[in-house]
Every structure is written in C-alpha cells, then in structure tokens.
Structures
1.
Amino acid sequence: ADRERLEHALAQGDETHVAIELLALARSHPGSPIAQAAGERLQRLAKAALERAQAARGSDEAAERAALTIAYLATLEPESRKVLRARLEQLTRTEIFSRKRSVECEEYKVVPGDSLSRIAKRFRFPVDGIMHVNHMRRTLIRVGQRLKIPRGPFEVLVIKGEYRLIALQDGKWLAEFPIGTGRDDSTPEATFEITEKTKNPTWYAPDGVYPYGHPKNILGTRWLGFNDTEEHAGFGIHGTARPESIGRSESSGCVRMRNEDVEVLYGLIPTGSRVRILP
C-alpha cells in the first residue's frame, strides 16, 4: 500500500502536484518508511528546482517563480521556506500584481458594451480579483482600457499543522495567509471544490440563524463554501470576528481567516477551484 501511494504521488501530471502529494505522504505518516521515502524524494525535487530557479533568475521571472514554487512545496521545514517565500512574494508582485505585462496573465482591451462582471465571467476570474490586480477602486471601466487578468487554474492548499493557506495560480505560488482550524482536529484532511461564494454571509448555526453583523455570527465578511461529500458536509473557508483565534484550532471545523485576508482570497479564487487540506 505504501509503494502504491508513493507511485501515485510520483505519477501526478506536473512537479507542483508531485510535490503536494509527496508532502501529503510525509505529513500524514510521520516517522514511517513511506514518510522517509517521500521526504527523500522531496529533497531531490527541491534541489533540482532550486537549481532551475537560480538559472532563470534575472532572465525569466515566470520560470523562476514556477521553479521556486516547487522548491517551496518540497521543503518540509517551515523556517527554511521563509527565504523562498520572500522571493516568491517579490516575483508575484511583479508578475501578477503590477501593471507590467506578464506571460502569466491575459491582457484584455475593453470594448463598447463591456462591464467588469461580463469580463470576469468570460475569463472565469472574480470581479474583485480583476480590481485587485489592476489597482482599481471602482468597477467603472472605459473603452480602450487594458486589463490584466491572471490565467488559471486556481487552487488552495491548506497545511493544518502550520496554520497556513497557500493560493496557487496555474501551479505557481500566488499568495499565502495564516489561518485557524477546527478544534479536536475537526478540519477534514480531504480534497474539496469551492462551490459557493458569499459576501457578508448569514450564519446558519445549530441554535438559530444569524445575519451578517449579528454578535453571534462567526463567519466574518466572506464565505467560500466547499462541496458536500459522503464523509464531509458544511465545511468552507470564512472570515472571523475573533482575529486572535488565527494560528489556533478553535473553529467548528472550517478554515478561519482574518477578514482582510479572506477578502483578498475571495477575489483571487473562482468558484470551481480545488481545495486540498493536508495535516
């Protein structure tokens, strides 16, 4: 069974997802032979990716970002990842969140009859995300305006034991946030899809229904709901009225974020995106 899990991890279609699957094995079975084998594979993957990133530095930022993402995910020690994360933040600011043209993004020229919501639907990227990437404060657009729109697919990786959430764009590091998780290990380690997104959500609690703004509403300013499965139902990512709980296991099982962070994530992750939760 261990060999089958390892072979499955190595059979993923790209190195980013190979790294994620190996990371899942290493974290799910600490101290076991399968974890040791996965760790050794991760070390080799990280070393090769770092060599590619170094070769691309200064000449191909997209290639450097792709390689650093693999190295980042293949590095098990949180402290060792900090330097990599700092460089990934720099690259992402330039490639995605600046006005500079990028091979990572579509460039769209606004035509008569366009609206931001229509453009968002066409490119399957949220209105809030288009505004964030293009430094827009209002939804008003003008004919001839050029908009930068990141290419997907988009996904979310949650590492419970480190209280971290990583957003990925086309297999590359996009953003990262601290989170809170469920008490008594109630946040499920599984793969989901985001099927619902709501601003200022209502909390349907076991003891009643509480609209946004009610003192008993725990969901904060955004809700990104997961699909229900045979084993898990009612889970999602949301904000919080208790920011001091971030970095702790105090929720009822959902992934909890600071409101300002979940608002950014809400804009970057479209409905239909995959969510993978690791130990």
2.
Amino acid sequence: MSLSTPVRLDLHLHTTRSDGALPPEEVAAAAVRAGLDAIAITDHDTTDGVVPARVAAVRQGRLRVIAGIELSCSDAGADFHLLGYGIAPAHGSLAAVAARLAALRRERIGEIVARLGALGVVLRLEDVTVPAGNAAMGRPHIAEALVRRGYVPNAQEAFDLWLRDGGPAHVPHRGPSPAVGIRAVHEAGGVAVWAHPDLGDARRFPDLRALGLDGVEALRPGLAPTASAAMEHAARAAGLFITGGSDWHGAPRPALGSWYVTEKHVPQLLARLGIATG
C-alpha cells in the first residue's frame, strides 16, 4: 500500500498490552482522529497489541499499522531499549525473548515491592494489577497501585519519590544483551533501532552498528533540535539511519498526533519496510 504524501507518522506508541493507557483498538481510532497516516505499535516486550490495532485500522479505513516491539534489553547493568519494526509478530525468536522478559518482569516487580516495603511503603504483589490482556507489567502499574493505596495523589509523584531510574525503589532491568535483541528482531524479519538514546550515547553507535543495529531514534519530543541534528550526524557517520517517535503512553501525555514525523524524516526506514509514498 502506497501512502499519499505528506505522510504523518508516529513510530513509538504503547497500548494497554504493556504500559499504555488505551487498548490497541482505541489507539488506532485515536490515531485516525488525530490525522496520522501510519503508526507503529511498540509495546514493551510483547507484540500482542499489533493485530487488534490492525483490525481496528481496517475498520477505520485509512491507517497503516506497522508491527513493532520495544525490547527491554540490558547493557553493562544499564537499561537499553531496542525497537523492532516490520517484524513478524508471532515469530519464534521474538516469542522466546518475550517469554524470558515476562518472567524477568515478574521478578522485578517483586523486588521493587520489597524495596518499597523496606522504605515503609507497604504494598502487596496482589495490589499491582494490570488491564486484561496485558503481557508486560511494569513500574507504571506499581505507581497506579500506590495511588489506589493513598500513598501519592498521582503516578508521577510515585516515580519522583521512589520509582524513577536511580530512585530508592528502582530495580534495573536484567534483560538480554543488545546483541541478543538485535538478532531476535532480525530473525523476525525486522529492523532494529535504539530507542531514545542520549546525545552522549553517540560514541557507542559504531560498536552497536557492528552488532547489527540498523538505526537510532534521533527525533522525539523533548530532544532539542541541535541535539537531534548532532545525533543524526553521528548516526549517519556510523552507517545508521534515524527514526522518530513520541513514546506515547496516553494521559497525561500530550494528545496523540500533536507530535509526528513525515516521510522526509524517515525515508530509509520506510524503504526498509517496503512502504512506498507519493
């Protein structure tokens, strides 16, 4: 299917199948209302939201849904989020990595709850609930439980006080290495993109390219244009293309469609995915 230009895309969206606020079907409907032409469903460690979003998009009649995933990899003890685009959602390699990550997520939730308890914030594992069909329990669900228990007025305060990266209750991911994630994405027929790197990470682009990384998410809300330009320069020097996405999870984020990229920003990704524009 060819998309008529100009094409408005958001290549990094989450649904209730991981830690987003809306079910896949509602994300697709919201994207159509927002005037987007193509979206990527990139839930954490699951592809379960892709098919429902595509079914809803067919009903809407004018939205392309790209099959994606965001894998929670680990690199030298630090989180490393890897986006996969154009994947076969049910591919065995991805399913194996996702199953391992689901088990690790459950362990991580238990460790975070234990750390909160040591801080005097008493929460039970059964207090942490997820929407039906969710396959990727995470920190936002703990934050919601803390709100329900009355410890904080909103989820953001839970992150600020305890759950943020480096916070007193934070437990880093212990996922697969970037090399394992990249290989799984490639085996599933997709392209592998580093999600939301910082400009200081650009020094690592050549080494990651050698591992098979295809691109970096250099365009996103909150990243200064000068930083985006410098990251794009470093990426292209390392043989990587650039992508862009809002990392939208729903409320209280800005409205879907308020930020997007066009075909002029991501031509190499669209070519790799076989998406024609014109």
3.
Amino acid sequence: METWSDDRVREAVAARLPHHRAGSITRLGEGEDNVAFELDGELIVRFSKDPDPESRAARIDAEARLLHAVARISPVPVPEPLFADPGLGCLGYRRLPGTPLLGLPVPDPSAARLGTTVGELLAALHAGRMVSLVELDVQPGAAWLEEAAETYAAVAGQVPAAYRPRIEAFLAAPPPHDGYEPVFSHNDLGIEHVLVDPATLAVTGVIDWSDAALCDPAYDFGLLYRDLGPVALDSALRAYGEADGIRERAVFHARCSVLEDLAYGVAAYVDKSVAAFAWLFPG
C-alpha cells in the first residue's frame, strides 16, 4: 500500500520549490482519489492515489492545466498550481483563505449574496471553452432517478416519516426533459467546496475541481439549491440569466443528490440533508 510520510512531502516540495523550507506538516484528509497535506498553514500539497504511474502522471498534468485555465476565467479565486510533478504524482498550490461553508449558519440575506456569487461564477464557467481539458459527464434523467431510488431504499429509515410519501412520489414521477447542451462546470459545487470569510460569509474561493466536466448546466445550480435553499437559487439564476429548463432540472438534481448526501453518512452531510427536506419536498 502507498504511504505518504512527512519526508515524502518535504521531498516533493524541495524538488519543485527549493527555496521553501517546510516546517509544520498537517495531513488534511484523504479521499478515494487523493491525499492532501498542508505545509506551514500556507501551502497545500496533494498526492494522487492512482497506483498506475502513467495514469497518475496524466491525471496530475491534466488537473494542473485545467486549474490554470479555470483561474483565467473564474471571477472567484481557485487553487492555481505553484508546481505539478507528474512523476511523484503530486500538485502544490497556495492555500486559499477562508473556511468551508459547510456547517456554518447562513441567514437568508447571506444566502442571497452567496447565490449571486455562484450564479456569476457559473455564467463564466459555462461560457468557457474547455472541451479539450475535461470529459463529458452526462446521463439521462431516468438514470439519475433510478440511482436515487436505489439510494432511497438504503436510507429510507433515516428520512423523517412525514417526507417519505413525498420522496416516493418524486421517485415515481417522470424526470424532466433531457434536451440541453452540456457546458463546462465544476460539477460538484456543494457548499463543502465553497470557502468563505466566516465573519461575513463572502466567498473567498472555490476548491476541488477534480470532477469538473462537460455536464448539465443545471447540475451545480441543483447542488446550490440543495444546500442553501430557494433564496440562493433565485439569486443565482438572476445573476446567471435564467435559461429554459434550468430551474426545473436544478430542483430535480437537488432532490436526487440530497439522498446521496444522506447516504454518505458523515454527520455534517446528514444534518444538512435532513434540513433541506423542508424546501426540497414541501407538503
């Protein structure tokens, strides 16, 4: 099994940033694809867990090129690589200020401002020409609904009884029409990936672009609606310039994805999922 020691992190930084002397090293976390470290509170170094050297190198190179391209068009800060080492399978960038929005209380006025910022970001991304940098990630609404039904069967016991008939009615109804043109988007724009100033809730950055793809333009709006509710969605669509079908498909994606978040099982995700049932499945 691959291991990532402090010495390996220092080796990676020394190879690419010889003038940087790493002091404290904190392991930030590990997902299915990557493990991340913070150096001295200012530098993030992320290693790919892909065991195949060629595939790992290709992933690191592709992500570095994508982040540089996104930084040129995004109206909010994004991680921009200071170095990429395909051989070591790692990427380094300066830590963006702020804290993830997940778990912070968001009153309606702040939700409206956050929605406006996200709408402006999505307008810029969806107009971006990124066809050569990302893959297509689309599936018909019927497939989303089938996956949601399977997830619901696994988590129904965690759903408050009042919402179960409403969710079951949603799962039994036909999905929205699939007629849309895929666009470049973050493709995982939940509030865990939105950094904010905790005092003002102003957006300070958007992180984790590993799922970026050509996808349904409504998908990231759906995650915003799932996490922050109708006030945020309304503001986002006003800033974006509401297009045909986006609101309906955003609501659809929000309802499907909230079940996935509930199944994830982490307390912060479970709490926000249960809270969101009030606007996603109203009586």
4.
Amino acid sequence: MPINPDAVGSVGEPTEISWTSKQSLIYALGIGAGVADPTGFELEFTTENSDGVTQRAFPTQGVVMGGGGTPDFGSFNPVFLLHAEQAITCHREIPATGTGIATGRVGNIWDKGKAALVYLETDVTDPEGEPLWSTSAGLFLGGEGGWGGERGPSNDWEAPERNPDHVVSYATRSDQALLYRLSGDRNPLHSDPTFASAAGFDTPILHGLCTYGFTGRALLHATCGSDPARFAGMSGRFKSPVTPGEVLEVHAWEIDDATVLFQTRIGDRVVFDAGVMTRRH
C-alpha cells in the first residue's frame, strides 16, 4: 500500500509516556553538553546530584520522548526516508523527569512529484491535561509522490543581510551518533555502514535530530541566558547531512524580543536552514 493522502487529519490513541532523570542526562550528553567544561558549565543538564544544582532538561528533548500512537498513513521504503523538517513548541519548561499524555496525528501530506512530504504531529499534556509541548516532523519519502496532489506552500525565509548577532561553534564527536542513539532513535542509517551505503551515503550520518539538539542548545545559551523556561520553540529544515566529527556553527540573528532567525552551517555549507526560534521574557 503506498502513501494514503486521505489519512490527513487522522488522530491516534492517546498514549501515556514517561521520562526519567537518567534519560534527560543521556539526551544532554548526546547533544554535546558538558564537553567543554565537564564539571562546570551545564552541570544542571548533565548531573542530578551536584551540590546546589537542580537538574533541568534541554527544551529540544521533547522531540525524542515519544509521539503517541501514529495513525496509519500508508507504507514506504524506509531506506528512502529522510527527516526534512522539525519543529517544537514548548508550552512551558519541560521537567527533567515526568509523565505525560501524547496524542499523535497525521498533518499535511504534500505531493513533491518523485516524493511525498508527510507531517506527523504530536501534542503532549501533563496527566491533568495541561499542555507541555507540541512537535511536528516533516518526513521526505522518496519514490512515494506523483499521485497528482498539491505540492504545498513555499518557504520565503531569508537570512538577514547583516552579520549575525551570535555565532556559536560546537564540535561533534566521531562517536556522536552512537551516543545520541541511546535516546531512542536506533535507525541503522546512523550506525550501520551497509544500511548507510544502500541509502547513498559513504558512511553513517549523524541523526538530524542530533544536529537539531546541538542547534537548540546553542540558541538556549546564546539567546535565552541558558534558561529553558525562556525557550518557547524552534523550527527549520534539514538541508545537508552531517558526518560525526564535523564542527557545527550556529548563526543567529535577533529580530525582536521574541524572535530569532538562525542557520546551522559547516563551513560555508548550510546543514539546517530556515530556522525560526521563539522565546519568552
């Protein structure tokens, strides 16, 4: 069965999810926290029992903590799946440990000709029904387009014609993907050379959501005073794959008190594009 465009709007069964202090620590290490200063800066994200320090979670952790029951939207070859876009909205600070109710749904499905672009959305509330966070993942499915559907809207994002207000540089580790996969994404594209070769890559690539996490971490520290409570959300498009060991540079432009535009680059190559971050004051 190919992709089913009629699945748009389908809602899955609410699912209880939970996360632990240990999972938050592993996620933090997976996006590079603590590398520059293991016993100083970022201790609130990398430890749970340091004197005078209360553990906190990175805002982007919500993208790996379960998506609820995703309704069926057809079938596809996973070798030709690429994570194209990602967004998260944090309705409040995500706690380092907790329980929530996740409800998944199928968002828009666009026909890109030789591929389909499918959006999977999730809303997470606390057990009392108060919103915690919402996510949207755009999946590019090669070979699944061509049914004559709408192509979807274009994106008119442009980087400001001035120097960025912040440039944050983070080196990824050569084993970054092996560490990051402990947060739940065991896709062999990021660890198995044979699978990666079948997908057209010379070597396993870094998880797109790991690049996303590194980027969110840079934005948190550079534009939110390292306070997760101020981080309201971020979105953007994956532009180019990252190989573990490469150095990420996050370029950020503060547009106003609430909005930051950003790109993540490796040298002159853009790897995460059309970035928009929102923050609270």
